[in-house]
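Per reviewer request, we include the raw input and output of the structure prediction for the construct analysed in the revised manuscript.
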Amino acid sequence: MTTAPTDASDRGDDHFWHLARSGSGVAVTDVEFALMRTAESFARWQSECLAAVTGAQLSGSENTMLHVGSLQKTENKAR
């Protein structure tokens, strides 16, 4: 079942700027945006925590790589 696109100004919503044509499309887009914001916030938090402890200015991705490398070293010692 498809619905004809409606004019955003007729719907009265504040999502007139993106390509979603249905309420469920708008909801999915909102969830995706919330996930992206959460991921970026977590990466910033990781960077700030590492900088506070070590003084190193690393990105969240670099910090994650350090953690993965460290975990692999500890797993090898446990074997």
